[in-house]
TrEMBL record:
<feature type="domain" description="CBS">
    <location>
        <begin position="633"/>
        <end position="697"/>
    </location>
</feature>
<feature type="transmembrane region" description="Helical">
    <location>
        <begin position="401"/>
        <end position="418"/>
    </location>
</feature>
<dbReference type="Pfam" id="PF00654">
    <property type="entry name" value="Voltage_CLC"/>
</dbReference>
<dbReference type="GO" id="GO:0005247">
    <property type="term" value="F:voltage-gated chloride channel activity"/>
</dbReference>
<feature type="transmembrane region" description="Helical">
    <location>
        <begin position="365"/>
        <end position="389"/>
    </location>
</feature>
<dbReference type="GO" id="GO:0008021">
    <property type="term" value="C:synaptic vesicle"/>
</dbReference>
<keyword id="KW-0547">Nucleotide-binding</keyword>
<feature type="transmembrane region" description="Helical">
    <location>
        <begin position="228"/>
        <end position="248"/>
    </location>
</feature>
<keyword id="KW-0967">Endosome</keyword>
<dbReference type="InterPro" id="IPR046342">
    <property type="entry name" value="CBS_dom_sf"/>
</dbReference>
<dbReference type="GO" id="GO:0005524">
    <property type="term" value="F:ATP binding"/>
</dbReference>
<dbReference type="GO" id="GO:0005769">
    <property type="term" value="C:early endosome"/>
</dbReference>
<dbReference type="GO" id="GO:0010008">
    <property type="term" value="C:endosome membrane"/>
</dbReference>
<dbReference type="InterPro" id="IPR000644">
    <property type="entry name" value="CBS_dom"/>
</dbReference>
<dbReference type="InterPro" id="IPR001807">
    <property type="entry name" value="ClC"/>
</dbReference>
<keyword id="KW-0406">Ion transport</keyword>
<keyword id="KW-0868">Chloride</keyword>
Length: 793
């Protein structure tokens, strides 16, 4: 369930919203002294702005959480002002139309740029991957496949060989066979891989440190309201696009799909900055980023609908209905743009589009479920091992040498990968071969079956046949490749380079699935009289499709790592065109999630969020402990009293001293320190900006000027300096709960309203404060985890 900023919480007896909330979208109190949160049945303005607001008001510092309620309120005020002005003149009416359509324009631009970048990345990866093995003499910018397409001397039997394409050994020493040619090609393969990886990690380290990793954990955190300045910047976009091509081409066990979500969100952030509607409102900006994430998955997998569901299920925190429509539009434009570029030359959006011609049978559900179990176990193993390795990287000297780590992992990967044809090729090509059904024209080792010379069946209906020597060779090569991929991916994901996890996880599952599929196929062929095969697999029939098992295994392993379900199934059938095989995919995805959840609820992205200490309050987490707000609030027993501001008795110097001596994000405002009756809440950043602005623009404001937050100035003795009114930055309706409110309720309120902090009162008297960090640390403590791992608020 996605967070909705203003949600009716009728099942809590202490909380009762007025109908005016739906109209004004502001939480307000009828009494400015705010007796408690259980009596919020008045209305008023959240902020009392002056006619000339000072610059930077309402902005946030880096590594802080936004105030969703205030952002929503500001957008409502802006929209109300535009609507009222639109009736004044034709020009204002046109401006209101432009404002209404600006969201769709942003979606169009995001889709166009994301689709274009994805197409360029696909073309560049295809060329640079082949560059490790050889070069096209007629046009060096052609990949191996493109080079032989353009050749007039290419035959069907030798369609991968043509005079225009030469391996490095042929070009340098004029030898294509033999030990010396093999060693030279081997050496140059490793050298190219090291060059690509070194260039990538150097660019990331020097120009854009935020361009490393998958990006999805940080995107999830940003969409929940956290500020990470520069993470979606223009430099990050440029460097991540370039280095993504380099690291995928280097042959490392990583994919480009996750980083493409980051690239698309960078596009969304860039275009948001061009429209004040989004650039000045962090809440509205996050609606655009949610749609951009959908466009990223759309171009990564060629799955527009799956992209929308991925954004909804996996990354978005606040996903209103209009964002759903706009996400769909952005994903559509992105997919159309990528289709127009046609990077794979097959009129498809993805490299491994397949079509199967054999239905699946109920008896096959058992091996499909077994693949689901394997996917769940693989997901659990990967998450635990990868997090342990990443934690070691953060806490030891290993983290000080990111370039050396990348070089060592790349060298190990290239040295081990080259001798095995299934690890030498790009992972996307490997998955494509594993997914393919064996037709009469296939030349892969996986299709080396013993054919019946008297067979006169149609091409698309080849019966099950006994496996030939090529299949058995491929089986043990796949087994070695599977072990290698499982181990090397653990150490590769999380290095200081762009690294996606979708494709390596799918490759692990596809290899396991293909081997299981071949096993079931041979079992059905040699033992067709068994009771489980007798009803559906007669001699000479095409019963089992090994490629389908590979597809199901890929879905199971990806689901085990990410814990996706609905969006995963939709992505897989859009990816492969296998609409008929939704039930096997669903069975495998659900089984993998159940098995993985039995060992731990966290997916890989949530685990990395917790590892980095980001303040992410997951809507999937359950809090069932019987603690109260008074157990979590600060100050606790034995701690110093809460730092507060008084409404009309502190000087500018007192406020500046309080700000200097503390690092709190804001301060409650009370009537006096004796009564501690709550008036409102003032943000630290806005206090600093307001005082600085007043000293520059308002005459008579000095260090001993009285600061007041009331409508009318206090009575001052004669010759007193000019007082400073700061009511305009005061939040008159901070959210409050009583000290006996259950923490289960408090956690739910923080989730659904996106609060930064919540004040604790008793009969209107301020007792303490609960911040988002306090909530997360309390949840970690209750789960027997380290509460100090939560580093940001």
């Amino acid at each position: 369930q996605k967070k909705v900023v203003l949600l009716h919480l009728g099942h809590y007896t202490f909380l009762c919203w007025s109908l005016r909330v739906c109209q004004t979208l502001k939480v307000v109190f009828s009494n400015p002294n705010m007796v408690n949160a259980g009596e919020m049945n008045g209305s008023g303005n959240l902020m009392d702005f002056l006619d000339e607001p000072f610059p930077d008001v309402g902005t946030y510092e880096d590594f802080h959480t936004i105030d969703w309620l205030r952002e929503k309120s500001r957008d409502t005020d802006r929209h109300r002002k535009i609507t009222s002005k639109s009736k004044e003149s034709i020009w204002e009416f046109i401006k209101s139309l432009l404002d209404a359509w600006s969201g769709w324009v942003v979606m169009l631009l995001i889709g166009l740029l994301a689709g274009t970048l994805a197409g360029v990345i696909d073309l560049a990866v295809d060329w640079m991957t082949d560059l490790k093995e050889g070069v096209c003499l007629s046009a060096f910018w052609y990949s191996h496949e493109q080079c032989c397409w353009t050749s007039n001397e290419t035959t069907f039997d030798d369609r991968d060989k043509c005079p225009q394409w030469q391996k490095w050994s042929e070009l340098l020493v004029n030898q294509s066979e033999g030990a010396s040619a093999y060693i030279l090609n081997y050496f140059l393969y490793i050298l190219w891989a090291l060059c690509f990886a070194f260039l990538a990690v150097s660019l990331v380290r020097v120009f854009a440190p935020y361009a490393c990793g998958s990006g999805i954990p940080e995107i999830k955190t940003i969409l929940s309201g956290f500020i990470i300045r520069g993470y979606l910047g223009k430099w990050t976009l440029l460097i991540k696009t370039v280095t993504l091509v380099l690291v995928v081409s280097s042959g490392l066990s990583l994919g480009k799909e996750g980083p493409l979500v980051h690239v698309a969100c960078c596009c969304g952030n860039f275009f948001s900055s061009l429209f004040s509607k989004y650039s000045k409102n962090e809440g509205k900006r996050r609606e655009v980023l949610s749609a951009a994430a959908a466009a990223g998955v759309s171009v990564a997998f060629g799955a527009p609908i799956g992209g929308v569901l991925f954004s909804l299920e996996e990354v978005s925190y606040y996903f209103p209905l209009k964002t759903l429509w706009r996400s769909f539009f952005a994903a559509l434009v992105a997919a159309f743009t990528l289709r127009s570029i046609n990077p794979f030359g097959n009129s498809r959006l993805v490299l491994f589009y397949v079509e199967y011609h054999t239905p699946w049978y109920m008896a096959e559900l058992f091996p499909f479920i077994l693949l689901g179990v394997f996917g769940g176990l693989w997901g659990t193993l990967f998450i635990r091992c990868n997090i342990a390795w990443c934690r070691r990287r953060k806490t030891t000297r290993l983290g000080k040498y990111p370039v050396l780590e990348v070089i060592v992992i790349t060298a190990i990967t290239a040295i081990i990968a080259y001798p095995n044809p299934y690890t030498r090729r790009s992972t996307s090509e490997l998955i494509s071969e594993l997914f393919n059904d064996c037709g009469a024209l296939e030349s892969s080792q996986l299709c080396d079956y013993i054919n019946d010379p008297n067979m006169t069946r149609p091409v698309d209906d080849i019966p099950d046949r006994p496996a030939g020597p090529g299949v058995y060779t491929a089986m043990w090569q796949l087994a070695l490749a599977l072990v290698f991929k499982i181990v090397i991916t653990i150490f590769t994901f999380g290095m200081k380079i762009p690294s996606g996890l979708f494709i390596p996880s799918m490759a692990v599952g596809a290899m396991a699935g293909r081997m299981v599929g071949i096993g079931v196929e041979q079992l059905a062929y040699h033992h067709h009289d068994w009771i489980i095969f007798r009803n559906w697999c007669r001699p000479g029939a095409d019963c089992v499709t090994p490629g389908l098992y590979a597809m199901v295994g890929a879905a199971a392993c990806l689901g085990g790592v990410t814990r996706m379900t609905v969006s995963l199934v939709v992505i897989m059938f859009e990816l492969t065109g296998g609409l008929e095989y939704i039930v096997p995919l669903m069975a495998a995805a659900v089984t993998s999630k159940w098995v993985a959840d039995a060992f731990g609820k966290e997916g890989i992205y949530e685990a990395h969020i917790h590892l980095n200490g980001y303040p992410f309050l997951d809507v999937k987490d359950e809090f069932t402990h019987r603690t109260l707000a008074t157990d979590v609030m600060r100050p606790r027993r034995g701690e110093a009293p809460l730092s507060v501001l008084t409404q009309d008795s502190m000087t500018v110097e007192d406020v500046e001293t309080l700000i200097k001596e503390t690092d709190y994000n804001g301060f409650p405002v009370v009537v006096s320190k004796d009564s501690e009756r709550l008036i409102g809440f003032a943000q630290r950043r806005e206090l600093i900006l307001a005082i600085k602005n007043a000293r520059q623009r308002q005459d008579g404001v000095v260090s001993n000027s009285i600061v007041y937050f009331t409508e009318d100035p206090p009575e001052l003795p004669p010759n007193s300096p000019h007082p400073l009114k700061l009511r305009r930055i005061l939040n008159l309706s901070p959210f409050t709960v009583t000290d006996h409110t259950p923490m289960e309720t408090v956690v739910d309120i923080f989730r659904k309203l996106g609060l930064r902090q919540c004040l604790v009162t008793r009969s209107g008297r301020l007792l303490g404060i609960i911040t988002k960090k306090d909530v997360l640390r309390h949840m970690a403590q209750m789960a027997n985890q380290d509460p100090e791992s939560i580093m940001f608020n």
